[in-house]
User: Which sequence fits this backbone?
């Protein structure tokens, strides 16, 4: 019995420290995005994910299956897809990335966005997207 209790006490801090921080979750999402790895990408997406247009508040994507469908198509149509982080700010469970995206759907025109990721329990639950006004 003492061995079992000792074993539990030794492993408990290890399991607690293994949890990914919000920044690590978003970094994993970025790396799998750049590798066009849909399974890795979706591994950090919550089942009830929502994506919002920051300016209007309108929901532009809702739910795990919708997200998987959209990004699977983007990955399939974007052999040169790459997102570079220009700046990153971490504030509590929010990660704010200023991204410079190239190769989306075969386009030579870069896209510059600010994305606010909300992370809960190692999953991205909400993404708010800010676009430059044209």
Assistant:
């Amino acid at each position: 019995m003492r061995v079992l209790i000792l074993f539990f006490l030794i492993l408990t801090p290890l399991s607690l420290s293994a949890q990914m921080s919000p920044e690590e979750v978003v970094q994993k999402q970025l790396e799998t995005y750049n590798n066009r790895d849909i399974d890795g990408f979706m591994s950090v997406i919550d089942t009830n994910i929502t994506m919002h247009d920051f300016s209007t508040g309108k929901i532009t994507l809702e739910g795990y299956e919708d997200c998987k469908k959209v990004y699977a198509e983007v990955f399939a149509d974007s052999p040169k897809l790459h997102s570079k982080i220009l700046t990153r700010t971490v504030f509590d469970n929010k990660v704010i990335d200023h991204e410079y995206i190239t190769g989306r759907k075969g386009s030579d025109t870069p896209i510059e966005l600010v994305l606010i990721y909300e992370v809960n329990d190692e999953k991205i639950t909400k993404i708010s997207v800010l676009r430059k006004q044209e």
Observations:
- The chain has one domain: 20-131.
- Residues 20-131 form a domain with the Nuclear Transport Factor 2; Chain: A, fold (CATH 3.10.450.50).
